[in-house]
Amino acid sequence: MDKIIIFNPRSANAKHRLPNTILQVAASIHNRFEYVLVDGNMEKNPWETIENYIKTGEFGYFGCTAMPGPQLKEAIPITISIKEKYPYMKTIWGGYFASNQYKSVITSGYVDFIVDGPGDIAFPKLMDALSRKETTFDTIESLIYMKEGEIIKTKKGEIPDYNILPQLPYESLDKFYPLTRYLGKTFLGNRTMTYHSSFGCPFTCSFCAVVPIYNARWKGKKANLIYEDIKWLKDKYGADSLEFHDNNFFVSEKRTVEFSKLVQKENIQW
What we know:
This protein is of the alpha/beta class. It has helices at 20-29, 46-55, 71-85, 96-100, 102-106, 122-131, 170-176, 211-214, 223-237, 253-263; strands at residues 3-8, 35-39, 59-65, 90-94, 113-115, 143-147, 150-153, 192-195, 198-200, 218-220, 241-244. A seven-stranded mixed beta sheet has the order 2-1-3-4-5-6-7, with helices on both faces. Strands 8-11 form a two-stranded parallel ribbon. Helix 1 links the parallel strand 1 and strand 2 (35-39).
């Protein structure tokens, strides 16, 4: 029962975007733990799909990302159902809602752990500890959990270096949902791909959910590595345009200019 379900709850009724959030988590454990990806945007009944996986007896962990709003409509009832019907399953939440409203989430009794911010380092460390049946998690940074009725928040970890993180497992996602289904028509083109190239933002706007997660910190991927990814997506899947979903893409003007020059020859709108 060491396999992991990684779930992206439904966020929209149409024009579905590539689920980079769960791809990022999957990349952190790729070739280390067995996992399946469940995208609520592509499922008529995600609970049925998730429960069918659990019923095999091979899964012991459920990871879920959740933004405030529509995603909670699936994330909450499915997590409750898992805990009520399969209490041995460890439930792990991440995303803006879990990090910013952690008291509501972790005291609910249905979520065992919250990954507070990026999970690239924290999630695989947590999975290592759980697989070894450890009961102490205070050395794992960016984690929130309950212990003896008290909320434990471990030290906030550094923002990961995007340049050394593993590549997103696009081909793994393609096995569950044809990746071309995510290439939608937009004002940019007929086959628009989505991409995330940086963490955080250096500003502290009072209205923004990013601020308490990144504390005015930002780290971006190098322009040449972004370009290599984009060219591969174009060549492999036929993407003709690109949406960046960064919190703040333009923090580094030097990086922006360099990327612009590199991608110009590819005839990709972005």
